[in-house]
Amino acid sequence: MSKFDTAPPNTHAGGNDDALRGQGSLPMNPTNDADERVDMDAYRQAVPLWKRVYQHSLTQMLLLSVQAFCGPAMADAIAGLGGGGLATPQTSNIATAINYAMLATVCMFGGPIVNKLGTKWALVIGAMSFPIRGSSYYCNSKFGNQWYLIFGGFVTGIGSGCWYVAESGSIMSLAPSGSRGKYLALWIVSRNLGQLVGGAINLSKNHVKGAAGGVTPDTYIAFLIIESLALPFAFLISPLENVVRSDGTRILVSEKLTFKQETKLIKSTMTSKLILLSALWAVWSFFYSGTWSTYLATYFTVRTRALSSLVSPFFCIVGCFGLGFILDMKSLSQRRRAQLGLFTVAILNLGVYIWSIVMQVKFNHTNPGKIDWDESLYASSFLPYFFVQTTGPLSQSYMYWLLSSFATDAQANVRNGAAFRCLEAVGQAISYGMNTQIKTSPLIGFCVTFALMAAALGPMLVLVNSTPDRIPADVIIEAQEAEQEKKIADFKSDA
Hints:
Helix 9 (180-205) runs antiparallel to helix 15. It contains 20 helices and no strands. By secondary structure, the chain is mainly alpha-helical. The longest helix has 32 residues, at 334-365.
């Protein structure tokens, strides 16, 4: 078996390419029959149109995006109500903290689980758990049933963990190398479009001025219906090895390892250079959500909170595609794009955090009560929340793009995605857990989030400056193709 030395050492899950290679005619182990670049003319003649469309990378990305719309986006829309839309945010924060604690636990072992189950069935398990969230909030709002809200957080944490690991590995593997930024923007936008629809539902049912307490119970029925729609789309997912990208390449998939072998790779994944240097960024990238959700519930009326979940995604859609175009600029090397992306994300977040801390200090000095959208204070107090709903997703989209820049194959993406999602969930669990103890002011949460970003920048600079100029998986494929062509040429010369 030939060696491929093109991948940068210890930058992917496992730290050793040979540990990811088995024997046989699989993508990481090419034989005379193996070739990752598809002959598109022969492919069009041999495969019917419906199947080509179904197996196209963009179709599969859209199927994932629809699930993100129905699941995580609806969860974001509920969080966008502030405290889950309940009269007090504490119970929602407890349930959400439990949800993310379970999600982190599942993601810790997500690589072995998903690589054993397969992407499709991990997504199916996750999609089955989505409606539990909407139903638990409905029961709490309608009947005051708190145990189900907390139990629902536990169950959806397990299901969502399976789904997020499968999703993260897929979104980092599906895109052609020159379109990763735009593919990831499509994924992020789908989550925010879901929040947009959720926000419209919220506002239509909670637009009366002077309403006190939480949102109406019927609001959660609409969320429950949308969450239920994710399951049929999960069944439509194609195995990654069958997907053909728009540039005529297939996804590099190595031979499956045993569950025991996959479990052993957890340690090497979590201690790899890639994960260690991005760990603080992962914890920080979702940490803001708990504090800003509490801020919204503490200082804004019910209808203003409903309006916030409608308008917040608009700027995010523009921002994510803007970052996507920067990350896909062909005139710059991959390393230079990584550096430019980090600078853009860091500067935007810095401005939002300073603004938020200044506003919270003012609120600590003079409590504004519940702010409505027709009050003069509304714009200056709401805009930090509005912008963080863009800068937060930008941070996440950028990090997944960066992780995929180090990928050696699809399984490495799954393992790295699982590790990163685990750390993200730890950040979310700590954030919501911390906010259950903050009864008066989110200032502590704002300052902790700011400090985490500052601490994350140093390791991220080291990681970004070591970004390979090309994706290792692409280099491996080219090496395989060169070896294949050499074998064919030798065979012809011998004949």
